[in-house]
Each structure stands twice: as C-alpha cells, then as structure tokens.
Amino acid sequence: MTEPALPGQMDQGSLVNLLGYHLAQASIPTDLVFKNYIQETFKLNKLEFTILILLQANEELTPKRLSTVLNIAAPNLTLILDRLEKGDLLTRIQSARDRRMQLVRLSEAGQVMATKLTSVSLSMEENIWKHLTSAEKQILLELLRKIAQHRRI
Fold first, then answer.
1. Who is most buried in 52, 73, 100, 144, counting CB within 10 A?
2. Exposure string (b/e) for 62-97, b if CB count within 10 Å is 16 or more?
C-alpha cells in the first residue's frame, strides 16, 4: 500500500514506519492552529496554556505533580509558574494539611482566562479534524493516550 504524499511530493523512505516522524508531521498544522488561536491572541505558550487548563480541571496541584505530568525539570517549571503568577493568572499557597507543601491554583483572572481558553480550544482544531470521521478521531486520541500513558519518566 502506497502512503499518501505529503506536501512536497517526495518519497518518505523508512520514515513512514516511524511514529515520531508522523507525530512531527501532524504537529505542523496543530502548531499553526495553536499559534493563531492561543499564542497570538492570549500571549501564552503551550506549557502555560496546558498548566492553566490542568489547574482549571484539578483546582489545585503541587509543583511536583505538575513537573511530573508535564515532564519538566522543577527549576524550569518554577520559571513558568513565576511568569503566570506575575501575570496574575495563578497563586501559590501553603497547604493547610502539610505546611511544607506548596499548592498552585488559578487566581480569579486565571479562572476567567482558563474559561476563555477552553472555549477557544474546543473549536480551534475543527479544520484539522474535518478529514477524520468521529470514530477515527476517537481511535486516534485513544491510541495517543495509550502511548503517553506508557512513557517512562
């Protein structure tokens, strides 16, 4: 079976069997959509966007947990959290259960921003998904979740 040609019409050789190659190719349109709908509009990068949405879904998280889930070194996460806190999008508080532990949660402005981001993100990829059936979309997402769940951190 011949692989459909990508823009540029060249033989992809053994790359057609590499997941990383296909993920990189698929990220081209998704990166452009993210840039147009989130980055340029809200001035957020992918990690900042992801952190805001994760905090919206989980109310409050420890930096350690965020670091693990996002596979980011703690010092790098601290810089990102500092930037979001400076932008009044999140707050850091001491845990009531364990005063040694710090928790991160959305500020009021962060809640408003996360709600706007969720609304935009639900429709921003429509042009990408239109080439797949609903069943294909669900299969693709499930397969990607399986790969992500079995990563080694």
1. 52
2. ebeebbeeeebeeeebeebbeebeeeebbeeeeeee
**Hey, what amino acid is at 122?**
L
Quote the DSSP letter at residue 8: T
Residues with Cβ within 8 Å of 70's Cβ and at least 6 positions away in sequence, in order, are: 47, 50, 51, 77
pTM of this prediction? 0.87
Residue closest to 29 by CA, chosen among 114, 139, 120, 126? 126
- List Cα–Cα distances, 82 to 41, 49, 106, 125, 151, in angstroms: 21, 14, 13, 29, 28
Smallest Cα–Cα separation from 60: which of 87, 80, 89, 90?
90
* Residues contacting residue 118 through CB under 8 Å, at least 6 positions apart: 53, 56
pLDDT tens profile 20-77: 999 999 999 999 999 999 999 999 999 999 999 999 999 889 999 999 999 999 999 9
